[in-house]
Design a protein that fits this description.
5-stranded mixed beta barrel; disordered N terminus; single chain; alpha+beta; Inorganic Pyrophosphatase; two-stranded antiparallel sheet
């Protein structure tokens, strides 16, 4: 039986038996994230998956510089809520969408409510990023500026610290 070549989400042609290995390697280290806020939107919403419920918390918060959501199945020790996640990339999503993302950094907050910075693997510009050094300085500044008026922020931390934080919050691969 002959296998036809196909285009996989990793962006290169693969075919035959080894195709699965290429896809698995490209998606290694991905975590699920539920999108609560859309990039470019305003307002603050809370999304619960079971049952699916979207409630509006406020009308005025800032312009969102990235998709904002949380990693299901985790609990941040600082506030008892799931770990917050900022997702960089251009992709279509709606509130409540479950997407798989790659954690690349941690936005450190003095109160302990740190934010995971992740990229969507299908994004053409940032999808291959694996660590903080792969994210353009302008993106990091834009994110920092959006949160600075509301929180006391510390320095950015890399992907290994983000992975440790997720593990400490109960994330299991």
């Amino acid at each position: 039986m002959r296998v036809k070549p196909s285009i996989r989400s990793v962006g290169r042609k693969t075919s035959g038996i080894g195709a699965g290995k290429a896809v698995r390697a490209a998606h290694a280290g991905l975590v699920p994230a539920v999108i609560e806020e859309l990039r470019g939107g305003s307002g603050r919403h809370k999304v619960s998956l079971r049952p699916l419920k979207i409630e509006r918390l406020s009308d005025i918060p800032p312009f969102w510089p990235a998709f904002y959501g949380y990693v299901p199945g985790t609990r941040n020790p600082a506030d008892g809520e799931p770990c917050d996640c900022l997702v960089l990339g251009r992709f279509r999503a709606v509130r409540g969408a479950l997407v798989r993302v790659r954690p690349v950094a941690l936005m450190f907050r003095r109160d302990g409510d740190h934010k995971i910075l992740a990229v969507h693997p299908a994004d053409r510009r940032l999808g291959s990023a694996c660590d903080l050094k792969d994210i353009p300085r302008l993106e990091l500044t834009r994110l920092r500026d959006a949160f600075r008026p509301y929180f006391r922020l510390g320095p950015w931390r890399g992907a290994s610290v983000a992975a440790e934080f997720l593990a400490a919050c109960g994330f299991k691969k």
